């Protein structure tokens, strides 16, 4: 090796050790409860992309992702307990249940492991939470509809999976919005399970019994299915709030070009897993991090539609990969 | 005895494999982490075993345990009297189901499948969004740290012993097994098959209630979907433990060992770092492997 090369290596090593002295030997694990939809796939890909680079750069020793096979809280609790045995320094969790993992999370905390939950958060006080204000998301949908339809009208609500906290929170937010805008009325409500095919079936089933619908409030992953159901029976297309899925954005762009269709789209970016990763890294690095952090949700408007559609892979979800600086900004409030 | 040999061997092989993959598990804390979530599964498996023993099958086990978990987390801490009444009511409902199935000669598989939606709905009504807290005494029991042997192991041994005494050693247990083996003979002997089946379901209800409470003691909080996996796990556990669908032929100790084996199989696959896409398949493969081994053993027995 030349002298110059040696010096360069030394410099790189110095820079590396100075910035990341405390977490280079730390192991972080991702405990994920479900991988069966486009959002979760995008979330795992985002994790893979960002952590691979972080490991290569020597920021952390490893960052393995684990997904439970059956999306059951008891199974994920067992998975977390296995991670304790495997000696991870931090566990990043997207939880099947906000409460049912608390026992396992407490075991991890007691073993000195840093636990960061995101998206599907856990309520155990010893864990950190990177949460989205889902209530504000639901409320925002009604507020958007109020700007578009000042005279109000009948709405159809598509909910997510029954019994899951995200569904309750978005629903509660929609309730708040309705209280503030009493000229809107939800005349029907179905469970779309955040999946286009389920939503399409459910909406098609309830449509014949409904009066004219001016707007559809959704939770993401269900807008395209709802549009298909409306189109199939030839009813006037209401304003359907979308959820950043590629099929939804594509349909929206087509409708815009064909009939000046206007709507908005909002959802939590799947890349939030990488934000949780950086938050965990910062905690391991000894930084003071508040237990409750809020991430902004990602919205697509009529103006940003083309760009968003271009950036979103076929069958995927609009996303961003978060960086260490993003994490520091969120931590700083 | 030979009926028990295979489940025991499967469990020992798996334990050795897990220790080899993850030496850290070979400790007091490690064993507890490996097995504590198996305790409610073992209880649910014994409950399922009682149903299978009388020739039926219960497809509502997971939903019922979830409902119990919701009652335990949402109502029991604030209002112990009401909570206790509701839990007893659940056991009574199970007994009534048994009586109904026998009196109208309904297929249990259909009745319990239907009831699973009733239990699921009741759970969501009681606990609309995940929450609640476990009663302090329950957490204290489930998270107790007795000297030398971890709580999970002690609890498993107690469950196996109690189930064995009730089902295999008591006159009550003999009558229930007879109901599964030959219901007509029982009825000719002058016993009411309706009452007996009701008792069998009530006994299963007692174990299922214990399963839900133990689960909440571990998770410290409830969720309406918490135990949906238990339906299939409990059936697999009974079969893995040497039980048979034909009725009357079960092994309580085997059922508990079966539940432990299933739990351990999950950890084993996780330590192997197997991709989740393959995990369900691999779990199924382990089941088939054990059942195939059982067939081989039985054929060897017949030949001998």
TrEMBL record, chain A:
Positions of the Periplasmic binding protein domain: 28-288
Major localization listed first in the record, in broad terms: other
Top-rank lineage group of the source organism: Bacteria
InterPro entries named among the record's database cross-references: Peripla_BP_I, SBP_2_dom
Signal peptide: 1-21
Gene3D superfamilies: 3.40.50.2300
CDD domains: PBP1_ABC_sugar_binding-like
Keywords: Signal
Record's subcellular location: Cell envelope
Keyword Signal attributed: yes
A GO CC annotation given for this chain: cell envelope
Any matching Pfam family: Peripla_BP_4
MF terms in GO: carbohydrate binding
Entry keyword annotation includes Amino-acid biosynthesis: no
Family: Belongs to the bacterial solute-binding protein 2 family.
Protein name per the record: Monosaccharide ABC transporter substrate-binding protein, CUT2 family
Species in which this protein is naturally found: Paracoccus laeviglucosivorans
TrEMBL record, chain B:
Any one Pfam family match given in the protein's UniProt record, by short name: BPD_transp_2
Chain segments annotated as transmembrane: 31-52, 82-101, 108-128, 148-167, 198-220, 226-246, 253-272, 278-297
Key words of the record: ATP-binding, Cell inner membrane, Cell membrane, Membrane, Nucleotide-binding, Transmembrane, Transmembrane helix, Transport
MF (Gene Ontology): ATP binding; transmembrane transporter activity
Domain of life: Bacteria
A GO CC term assigned to this protein in UniProt: plasma membrane
Membrane topology: Multi-pass membrane protein
Subcellular location as annotated: Cell membrane
Main location: membrane
Protein name: Monosaccharide ABC transporter membrane protein, CUT2 family /monosaccharide ABC transporter ATP-binding protein, CUT2 family
